Amino acid sequence: MKKYYPITGVLLFLILPVFSFAQIEQGIFLNDFKPKKVNIPSYKKIKTSSAQPEVRVVINIKDTMGMVSKYLFGNNTNQWMGQTVTEPLLVGQLKTLSPNILRYPGGNISNVFFWDATPDQFAKDLPDILLYGDKEKHGNQYFFAGKQSSPQAFSLDNYYELLKKTGSVGSICVNAGYARYGTGEHPIETAAHYAADWVRYDKGRTRYWEIGNEDYGVWQAGYKIDTSKNKDGQPEINNGELYGHIFKVFSDSMKVAAKEAGIVIYIGATIIELPKNKISDKEVDKNWNSGFFKSARNTADFFILHSYYTPYQKDSNPEEILQSATAVTSRMAKYMNDMVQENNIIAKPIALTEWNIFAEGSKQQTSYIAGVHAAIVLGELIKNKFGMACRWNLANGYENGNDHGLFNKGDEPGMPIWSPRPVYYYMYYFQRYFGDRMIGSTSSDSNIIVYSSNFSDGKKGLIIINKSREVKTVSIQFDDRKSKGKCTGNIHICHFRFCI
What we know:
- β16 and β17 form a beta hairpin.
- The protein has 2 domains: 3-67 and 438-493, Sandwich (Immunoglobulin-like), CATH 2.60.40; 70-433, TIM Barrel (Alpha-Beta Barrel), CATH 3.20.20.80.
- It is an alpha/beta fold and 500 residues long.
- It is 26% helix and 21% strand.
């Protein structure tokens, strides 16, 4: 006899003692994998429902699809969010969220960041003007210093302190732009040695390192240089093959520094996440990945992707936003597999070190739609065996709701500073009630998405999401001949909401 559970929500956990293993494909991101147990909260029994199910969900409890990396729940820090560790409310909320990994020093800022500089003392081989692909010019004041005491900045030492306070692992993006715009005799070697000195200073506190941020982009320092000031014959515009050479020099120097310190680090390379030849006519975009692998071959320990899922500055509706979470993630995974085959290289773990939505105009980025989108992205990343992901970012700027920040920085009208945005709760509950192994599941309705998991103690964690605008009644069945009546039931879920 079926039981009906009128639970309104998209997340449900059930108890069932089954345990199995799967092939490890996330590689280095599972090196410190630990079995996960769930702490079941108190609950209330509620009146059963007589509603007939419209959707049938089947959980295949013996179909283990893969292990879950704890580094998929990460986030990005940046240089304009403040010193952070001076904000106990923010630190406490981050500790509760448990992102597990925090990236530093930011996105584009990484290529103009000098970790040991003070605001009045930078390297002496910097140009007076930085050139960008869009011909925008910036002076020396655009460089960022790691030794910064300003309340508006985020110093390197406070980043390390934040990692300690939140129990997080570090992910650092070193300045590869410096290898391009440096005016010394050997800019690539100089920049590589500078990055290696950061590894020495780090002393093993950071495990994962990135060489440059989106170096293929016209918006990056180092994309375009003044060749009259360059002394090693580099071209005006960056390209994948050159980046591959820069990557190898950096990796060699940084690995030597790590070996000297008796530590192990992993270094990732920036890869374009989709075949840009279909949407861009720039030679840099079309040939970036093939050029990189021609030069660097299998040097990278992992591949770095970035995606903002929806079209840039488009007022995308909820359906478009939620659809992108599945479509874009699966396209990235397929493209990476194809790219490995086409370039005859060894497959490496994938890290999505920046992700969010570009949708704007209707406050999408600060809405609960962004939260539902995040839940789907997490499920899809697990399903496609990504190793690491860091959402962009912890705090940004309100801009009438066009704010990527996980927290209100203090500029949102009527909201206390450091108030979490809806996405905070989606990511918190997803991680808390999703196990350490994904198991197979199916849904009879494409608008009802389910992600199911095993905990190491035999319990099950289910994430059920209704993408439609209609209330749905869903039947849940565990496809196991040993299952008893308690393993089947119905839930009543509403549209675009998240609750337990």
